[in-house]
Specification:
- There is one protein chain.
- The chain is an alpha+beta fold.
- It is built from 17 helices and 24 strands.
- The strands form eight sheets. It has a five-stranded mixed beta sheet with strand order 7-8-9-10-11, sandwiched between helices.
- The longest helix is centred in the C-terminal third of the chain and has 15 residues.
- It starts with 6 loop residues before the first strand and ends with a strand.
């Protein structure tokens, strides 16, 4: 079950006599088939409300078998997991491999992440391309080779993989590491996978995702639902045994996304794709109002709805800026209504008031970082739809070097803040003077990957180690400098689950309680393995 389905609560399960009798009955589950419901996983909420995807056993079983053909496991392999447990955890366990869960406060901190991989001798890991790029930008090439020496397989998933990223990764990783690009979707499991080590660069600058796995059928259709000519780009539809049943309690969306073509059921992915003459599949990007931002699927219409409903905006349009495979940013074009009291900084394009009003309604990665005020939204006179070509360019996002920034020994607190302000302006691609002492890093376009870069540069300039989560906890210049001056920094040691599971000596069973066997129990109380009330799956 996806982590979104877990609850932290206690659960009492009554074990009636029929259950006790059937627990040892081998025929009790004989009517379970591959088409029974296996789990419900929730999407990341591209429309502002996550959708529960009803997935039968057949999808997982089929994708596991195909993955084993491409990259199987041996007893002794150590697989790290962080994204989606049904795909990541059970597949290696079924082959006897060991699974390590990467904590959330480690996965986006490159130094802690590579230490985790090295310390636990991880043999397989999955990254989004954005995370792979961040690791390559944050860690010295020699250190990656050393810390990744145990690694045999690195999967890339969730975004388009550019040729540039592939080549950098292959130059940096140990030569024996397989770099596998996979295209998989919650609604239809694995579609295609490919080892990128021997792939020639395509003129598009995008890496293919491979050939469709066994029994998977692909169709490319145009806007009129007609198949495109060979070699042409179209919207990708996926058919085969791995399709989900649909979305829980959402029949309209299910009918829209799961369609019948010539009597065969397909999932409409919303991705633009190209099938090369040799059958290799290349994903070009999104064809609707959904975009990928650092691995998250974001529905632009949901952001526009929030702007119109919560921010005193008369009309608006939201676009993503940046090519596929690059670090994109969301830009909101807004027309104020008569009650509006927000102000957009014309130099930086930031607006603290609009971000704060959107925060209760949108995930952080869905909140635009740049705002442009217009007198009216440009429309096409024929269709009445947004004319994106007439939208003015947002404030430029130039890249600035930080290598020349220095802090004098014994610098005063004010001098430390001045250097930090300059550092933020360079990292956030802002003009000089844009950042004040009370400016919030995330209000000016900061996000988790830029926070990683900030921690690395802070260590060089201030000789202080920070973790990414500490940037979130102290997001202004003043707060961060004060925190750094008041605390001695050190990378925390890993928590031992074994030690954490030992009860305090004062916790002892009541003297009148005797041990009870499972068979004789009337109820079972489930708790988490580390002491908190357990995450219970349905």
């Amino acid at each position: 079950v996806g982590s979104e389905m877990c609850i932290r609560d206690r659960l009492n399960i009554d074990i009636d006599s029929s259950w006790r009798e059937s627990i040892y009955d081998k025929d009790a589950v004989s009517d379970i088939s591959l088409d029974n419901l296996a789990f419900v996983v929730y999407s990341s909420g591209t429309t502002g409300e996550p959708k529960g995807i009803l997935a039968p056993h057949r999808g997982s079983v089929h994708s596991y078998q195909e993955r084993y053909e491409l990259s199987s496991y041996q007893v002794g392999d150590r697989v790290s997991c962080n994204v989606f447990f049904v795909w990541e955890i059970f597949r290696p366990l079924l082959k006897g491999a060991t699974v390590y869960i990467i904590p959330d406060d480690i996965i986006y901190d490159p130094r802690l992440l590579i230490d985790f991989i090295s310390k636990n001798k991880i043999t397989e890991v999955l990254f989004t391309p954005s995370l792979m790029d961040t690791v390559l930008n944050s860690v010295e090439k020699g250190e990656i080779k050393s810390k990744f020496s145990s690694l045999n397989v690195l999967w890339l998933n969730g975004e388009v993989v550019t040729t540039k990223l592939k080549n950098r990764a292959l130059e940096t990783l140990p030569k024996h590491v397989r770099l596998l690009n996979t295209y998989s979707i919650s609604e239809c499991h694995d579609v295609a996978s490919l080892d990128l080590r021997d792939q020639e660069d395509l003129s598009s600058g995008i890496c293919p995702v491979g050939y469709p796995i066994k029994e998977i059928e692909l169709k490319l259709l145009d806007a009129n639902s007609r198949e495109v000519e060979p070699g042409q780009v179209g919207e990708l539809y996926v058919g085969g045994p791995c399709l989900a049943r649909g979305y829980i309690n959402k029949p309209e969306i299910t009918a829209e996304r799961f369609v019948s073509i010539d009597g065969v059921r397909f999932y409409r992915t919303g991705d633009l794709a190209l099938i090369h003459p040799d059958g290799n599949l290349e994903i070009k990007g999104r064809c609707d109002y959904m975009v990928k931002i650092r691995g998250y699927s974001v529905y632009l219409g949901a952001i526009e709805t929030a702007l119109l409903g919560q921010t005193d905006v008369e009309s608006c349009a939201v676009v993503s800026e940046g090519e596929e495979g690059e670090d994109k940013r969301l830009v909101a074009y807004v027309v104020r209504n008569k009650n509006a009291d927000w102000r957009i900084d014309p130099k930086t394009g930031t607006c603290v008031e609009l971000r704060e009003r959107l925060r209760p309604y949108l995930a952080d990665y869905m909140i635009p970082s740049i705002y442009v005020e217009l007198d009216e939204i440009p429309l096409n006179p024929t269709t009445g739809k947004l004319n994106r070509k007439l939208l003015p360019s947002p404030p430029r996002q130039d890249e600035y070097e930080v290598g020349d920034i220095q802090l004098a020994e014994g610098a005063s607190e004010e001098e430390q803040k001045k250097v930090m302000r300059t550092l933020w302006e360079r990292i956030l691609s802002l003009e000089e003077g844009s950042i004040k002492d009370e400016s919030n890093f995330f209000d000016y376009g900061g996000h988790s990957l830029l926070a990683v870069r900030l921690t690395l540069v802070v260590e060089k300039i201030y000789q202080v180690q920070l973790m990414v989560k500490e940037i979130y906890e102290h997001p202004t210049v003043s707060d961060l400098i004060n925190y750094m001056n008041d605390h001695t920094r050190s990378v925390p040691t890993q928590v031992s689950i074994r030690e954490d599971a030992v009860l305090d000596r004062e916790i002892i069973p009541a003297p009148d309680q005797k041990p009870l066997s499972l068979y004789g129990a009337r109820a079972i109380f489930f708790t988490g393995s580390t002491g908190f009330l357990g995450a219970v799956s349905y």
